[in-house]
Specification:
Layout lengths: L1 E14 L2 E6 L2 E7 L6 H13 L3 E2 L5 E3 L7 E6 L21 H18 L3 E3 L7 E15 L5
Parallel strand pairs: 3-6, 6-7
Antiparallel strand pairs: 1-2, 1-3, 1-8, 4-5
C-alpha cells in the first residue's frame, strides 16, 4: 500500500459537486492498493500514520501525532498511486490491485482508523472526485507499507 499524507487545516472531497467527506485539522490521506498488499500492510501503514509525529507542539517542533492532537482523517482512494511511469508516456497500472479486492482493503483501512477512535471521513471509491486540500505547512509524506519495518 502506498499513501500520500498531508497535514491539513481542513480538507473536503466532492462527488458531482456534493460534499461526501469533510474534516478540520488532521490528515488528508490518498491511498493506493497494490498487488501483493495484505492485511499486514494495512495494519503497518495505519499504525505508522496515526503515530507519526508531524504536528507542532507548543515549541513549534513536529513532536505530536494525529492521536495526540485528536485530529481527523479524510481517506481517499487513489489507484493512480500504484501507476508506473518508467516506460513510455502512458502510465501502466499493472501493479494496481483488482478493484473489488482494492475496495475491500480500502474499507478495512478506513475501519482501522475508526476503530482507533479517529474521526474519519472518506471519498467514494472509484468515483471521479474533486479534492480540496488546505495543506498546513506544507507538510506532505509518501509512505509505502513495503518500506516499513
Amino acid at each position: 500500500m502506498i499513501a500520500v499524507i498531508q497535514r491539513v487545516s481542513s480538507s473536503c472531497v466532492k462527488v458531482h459537486e456534493e460534499v461526501v467527506g469533510k474534516i478540520g485539522i488532521g490528515l488528508n490521506i490518498l491511498l493506493g492498493v497494490k498487488k501483493g498488499d495484505s492485511k499486514d500492510d494495512t495494519i503497518k501503514l495505519v499504525n505508522k500514520i496515526v503515530n507519526l509525529r508531524i504536528f507542532h507542539d507548543d515549541n513549534k517542533k513536529m513532536n505530536l501525532s494525529l492521536l495526540d492532537v485528536k485530529g481527523e482523517a479524510l481517506i481517499i482512494s487513489q489507484f493512480t498511486l500504484a501507476g508506473n511511469v518508467k516506460k513510455g508516456r502512458r502510465p501502466s497500472f499493472e501493479d494496481s490491485k483488482e478493484p473489488e479486492i482494492a475496495k475491500k482493503m480500502y474499507d478495512e483501512f478506513v475501519e482501522e482508523f475508526k476503530s482507533i477512535g479517529i474521526k474519519t471521513e472518506t471519498g467514494k471509491f472509484g468515483a471521479m472526485m474533486d479534492v480540496e486540500i488546505h495543506n498546513d505547512g506544507p507538510v506532505t509524506f509518501i509512505i509505502d507499507s513495503k518500506e516499513l519495518g
